[in-house]
Design goal:
With 673 residues, the protein is α+β, with helices and mostly antiparallel strands. It folds into three domains: 2-103 and 105-145, Endopeptidase. Chain P, domain 1 (Glutathione S-transferase Yfyf (Class Pi), Chain A, domain 2); 179-241, no CATH class; 282-555 and 604-673, Neurolysin, domain 3. 57% of the residues lie in helices and 7% in strands. The protein contains 29 helices and nine strands. A five-stranded mixed sheet has the order 3-4-5-9-6. A two-stranded antiparallel sheet has the order 1-2. It is globular.
Length: 673
């Protein structure tokens, strides 16, 4: 437990995972909260009103709690053992109660309010002003001005929402682990890449079963749906996959309804019209109508191209005698159409993207752009044997630790993400450098082949690396605004812009080399990658915007609508607009496993991905004008975006980088829309 209660003596205070047990988190949290509560009494007795005594002192009081909870929630997503999950609800409840005790404490709020009202006389720096504004507005948004029963009710809501979020995530993980698709004969996997078949055979052996066992991991699901020639196998797998979060023992139906209801109640309690209104006041977009206008603008560009693309896929399937084109056919015929139109499919690329070379190339890109160096440290403690740890330097100056966790396992949730194990900024009286992790679920190596990534997996790797750079390059003083602590519709700019480099020959030549021959990826294949950027982009864009539309509509309902909500029917009615299948009932509801909304913090904010695409397309145009590795342009992006975190308004930072407002035409041009 001691490893959670103090910074380690390892190099760079690397977390001593080897000394942390799953049962240590809760007692460590309780002990740190007890110490913090004593410190709060002293804090409140100090009547000085200045930034140091009001903000910095309050920030320092909760440092141990922040440290423990950051590690706990990172592990809950990346390595949730049974013992860790067993304590998760109690841990969450304990932390929520503590958070409420701070955010709803009237004396604490009055100190911050007094400083906020006197800020013009305080000679604060730009960053201090932003931190003070954040503290004040967050406390107001978290109910600091509520009294009596309303304040008590808010505490209950916050506690329950925290519990429901964990339960939703756990249900998706547990149902995903429990669901498998068994295949008896290899002929039923005709067309599936050998690497995936080998994994399925190995999984069957592990479970003592005959034949092949397909898990619900994306590196298994996607290749089967793309390449399996046996329609019945695709249908069977797709049907099972859609049961995540919907099985009898791990069903999220009531959790979804309760989360939406509680979010709505909280918003009303705090004086907002809806959860959408509550959320968007802390976003670049600011209000619901702006977001809906943005969604409709993108839909209007994508709808007709999407319909034509769908009809083309239907016609292609009909040539095979498939008259009832269905969801389990989409990926398969998309790949056939791509091969037909571009003479190209994703598996052609896989041999050029070994994990080792992809990582090395990613580091070289960071070096060419930002003069960064990554040094592998095998001697530092890991939370799992597969994790890689790197020291990061900028021209010999230490920047932080970078953890890389790439492969699926039963204790890891699906998808890919970046997380801060240790934030950059003031901690224990010193401005510390961060510990940043990226966590993915990529294709594992087999006995006969190294881990070879699909092109989409390489894009994901660079995407999460962009988030990591945002964290690693942060040069703020205060943790509250450092790194990725920015508006959520701005946070995806540093990640999404990194994906652009992977589509350029100059970048690919750094690392895309055939794992057997060592040859560079051919020019004609790179050209096909560029062409494929616009392939079926209408459907892809429409799909993404349908999720954003669903998100906004779910979270703008009033209580009467929520009370009678049938999530399956609601989603079906709403999504029919985007559903081109003849049998519209075949599209299974996706809300049951939509962790972004119900366990990941993106509620009323899923539009942020496309919003940030406008920024990243526009920003990358600036690089294309002068060269993708232009040092001056990269330095401007680093200094104005990556180093600044949330210390200034995001639109001001962007305009400082570009010299102008963002232009959405770059996005539509890139997408061919």
């Amino acid at each position: 437990m001691e490893a959670l209660l103090k910074l380690s003596n390892q190099d760079h205070n690397a977390i001593e995972f080897q000394h942390i047990k799953e049962l240590d988190y809760l007692p460590a949290l309780k002990e740190s909260i007890e110490k913090t509560n004593q410190s709060i009494k002293n804090y409140k007795s100090n009547n000085e009103i200045n930034f140091k005594s009001v903000i910095e002192d309050l920030d320092s009081i909760s440092e141990d709690v922040d440290y423990i909870s950051s590690i706990f929630y990172s592990m809950y997503s990346a390595h949730a053992t049974d013992a860790l999950r067993a304590k998760s609800q109690e841990f969450s409840a304990c932390l929520t109660e503590f958070s409420n005790s701070i955010s709803l404490d009237e004396e604490i709020f009055e100190k911050i309010k007094a400083l906020y009202l006197d800020k013009e006389n305080q000679e604060l720096s730009l960053e201090q002003n932003k931190v003070l504004e954040k503290y004040y507005s967050d406390l107001v948004r978290n109910g600091a001005m509520l009294k009596g029963e309303k304040k008590d009710r808010l505490k209950e809501i916050n506690k329950k929402l925290s519990e429901l979020s964990l339960k939703f995530s756990d249900n998706v993980l547990q149902s995903s682990n429990a669901l498998t698709c068994e295949v008896q004969n290899e002929s039923e996997l005709d067309g599936v890449p050998k690497q995936v078949i080998d994994q399925a055979r190995k999984k069957a052996e592990e479970l003592g079963k005959e034949g092949f066992v397909l898990t619900m991991d994306y590196p298994v699901i996607l290749p089967v749906l793309k390449y399996c020639k046996k329609r019945e196998t695709r249908k069977k797998l797709n049907t099972i996959f859609k049961q995540r979060g919907r099985t009898k023992d791990f069903n999220n139906k009531e959790i979804i309804k309760e989360e939406i209801s509680l979010r709505n109640e909280r918003a009303k309690l705090l004086g907002f019209e809806s959860h959408v209104d509550y959320t968007l006041k802390k976003r670049m977009a600011q209000d619901e109508q702006t977001v809906l206008n943005f969604i409709e603008e993108v839909i209007s560009k994508a709808m007709e191209p999407a319909k034509k693309e769908f009809q083309e896929l239907e016609a292609l399937a009909l040539e095979d005698g498939v008259s009832d084109y269905s969801p389990w056919d989409h990926n398969y015929y998309s790949e056939i159409l791509k091969k037909k139109k571009l003479n190209f499919n994703d598996e052609v690329l896989r041999p050029y993207f070994s994990v080792e070379k992809s990582l090395a190339g990613m580091f070289e890109v960071a070096n060419k752009l930002y003069d960064l160096e990554f040094k592998l440290r095998d001697d530092l403690p890991k939370y799992h044997e597969e994790v890689l740890i790197y020291e990061v330097f900028e021209k010999s100056e230490y920047l932080g630790l970078f953890y890389v966790d790439l492969y699926p396992r039963a204790t890891k949730k699906q998808g890919a993400w970046m997380t801060n194990l240790f934030d950059q900024g003031l901690f224990k009286g010193k401005v510390h450098r961060p510990h940043v992790a990226i966590v993915c679920n990529f294709t594992k190596p087999t006995e006969s082949k190294p881990s070879l990534l699909t092109f989409n997996e390489v894009l994901t790797l660079y995407h999460e690396f962009g988030h990591a750079l945002h964290g690693l390059l942060s040069k703020c003083k205060y943790r509250a605004v450092s790194g990725t602590s920015v508006y959520w519709d701005f946070v995806e700019l540093p990640s999404q812009i990194m994906e652009n480099w992977v589509k350029e020959k100059e970048c690919l030549d750094l690392f895309a080399k055939h794992h057997e021959t060592g040859e560079n990826i051919p020019e004609d294949i790179v050209e096909k990658i560029k062409q494929s950027n616009q392939f079926l982009e209408g459907l892809a864009t429409l799909r993404q915007m349908s999720f954003s539309y669903l998100d906004i509509k779910l979270h703008s309902m009033d209580e009467a609508e929520i009370e009678k909500l049938d999530i399956e029917q609601f989603e079906k009615n709403l999504m029919d607009r985007f559903n081109f299948y003849k049998n519209k009932d075949l599209n299974s509801p996706m809300s049951f496993s939509f962790s972004h909304l119900f366990a990941g913090g993106y509620s009323s904010g899923y539009y942020s991905y496309k919003w940030a695409e406008v920024l990243d397309a526009d920003a990358f145009e600036e690089f294309l004008k002068v060269g993708i590795f232009n040092k001056e342009k990269a330095s401007s992006f680093k200094e104005n975006i990556l180093e600044k975190g949330g210390s200034e308004d995001p639109l001001i930072l962007y305009k400082r980088f570009k010299g102008a407002m963002p232009d959405s035409s770059a996005l539509f041009k890139r997408a061919g829309l």
